[in-house]
Amino acid sequence: MDGAAVVDALASASAPDAAGQVTLDLPTESEEVAFDQLARLGADAEVLGPACLRARFRERAAALAALYQADPQEREPEEAEAQR
After folding, report:
1. What is the C-alpha separation between 34 and 24, in angstroms, rounded?
2. Residue 82 carries which DSSP code?
3. For residue 45, how many C-alpha atoms fall within 13 Å in the half-sphere facing its CB?
4. pLDDT digits 0-9 by tens, 55-74
């Protein structure tokens, strides 16, 4: 992300809410770049929009939840191998 984009994003930031969270607009060059950069923040950031980007995070979260739901030792051998 270039310096001007960071300055613009910080300028758009709201005051912290009661939980200390801020809302801001973060311009990016593409949905793919936004997904890759914001995914690194894990649960420390929530994507509010656009809807297509939020949906990608929802899909990734569901896939991770399904992957980690069961202990790998409890899976069938072929299922465990397919997950690798």
Report:
1. 14
2. H
3. 18
4. 999 999 999 999 999 888 88
CA–CA gap between residue 59 and residue 65 (Å, rounded) = 10
Q: Assess contact for 47 and 54: CB atoms under 8 A.
A: yes
Other beta carbons within 10 Å of 53: 17
Fill in the amino acid letter for 61.
A
Can you give the pTM of this predicted structure? 0.72
Tokens of 51: 């809807």
Find, among 60, 59, 57, 61, the residue nearest to 48 by Cα: 57
